[in-house]
Amino acid sequence: MGAMLRNLRSRAGITQRDLAAREGLHRNYLGALERGTVANPGLATVSRLARALDVSVAVLAESFVRPLPQGRPGSMLPRPLPLTLAERTPADAIPGAPALGRALRLLRRRRELTRAALADATGMHKNYIGSLEDGQIASPGLLTITRLVHGLQGPGPHELGSLAASVGVLACVFAGEPVQVRAAA
Fold first, then answer.
1. Considering the entire predicted model, what is its pTM?
2. Key word DNA-binding present in the record (predicted)?
3. Residues 106 and 155 in one domain
4. Within this chain, do residues 49 and 9 fall inside the same structural domain, yes or no?
5. Which of 83, 104, 116, 175 could pair with 57 in a Cys bridge, judged by C-beta atoms 3.0 to 4.6 Å apart?
6. Structural domains counted in the chain
7. Within this chain, do residues 98 and 169 fall inside the same structural domain, yes or no?
8. φ, ψ dihedrals at 141, nearest 5°
């Protein structure tokens, strides 16, 4: 995602300092995003940057996705950080959180998975998944969404493009953007 963010910013003729100031970010944080050293950027931040650069949030979200390690997905990835007070807010305060939660719940139910089964597949706690589905997580990170999509797709190898597209769709749902589904070639 870092290279994509840097290219879009450069193409728009905006400096890091200007973009960071305009979006209420620290310039060092924006630099870390561009270097790819931020492990789990929040959807709210990614959405704001996409709007500022006049692209769909899916463009940035899909560029973040990378192959997951082989083996049990949850055991190979870092655990989600504990929630801060800023992350746990009333669902009606964050328009994107309830929509994302409803989409995740629908996808989980369509796969006939319990929260516990999805938690086992992702290495997340079932209560954290419940908080996401209830719209209580203000800005889940892209790694979190990637892990959920991987868990929803089930065991076995998955095409990276399909994983990235699914993450992009959920990012669009969060950002309130129209979802564009691409037909398979």
1. 0.78
2. yes
3. yes
4. yes
5. 175
6. 2
7. yes
8. -80, 160
10 Å Cβ neighbour count for 134? 15
Q: Are residues 57 and 95 in the same domain?
A: no
**DSSP per position, 72-141:** -HHHHSPPPPPPPTTTB--GGG-SHHHHHHHHHHHHHHHTT--HHHHHHHHT--HHHHHHHHTT-BSS-B
Looking at the fold, whether 22 and 98 belong to one and the same domain comes out as: no
Helix axes 126-133, 142-153, angle to 10 degrees: 110
CA distances from 26 to 19, 20, 30, 31, 175 (A): 10, 6, 6, 9, 22
d(CA 85, CA 58): 27
Q: What is the residue type of 32?
A: A
| Residue 162 sits in the same domain as residue 127 | yes
Ordered per-residue pLDDT tens for the chain, 185 residues: 899 999 999 999 999 999 999 999 999 999 999 999 998 999 999 999 999 999 999 999 999 986 555 544 433 333 333 333 333 334 344 458 899 999 999 999 999 999 999 999 999 999 999 999 999 998 999 999 999 998 998 876 667 778 888 898 899 899 888 876 555 44
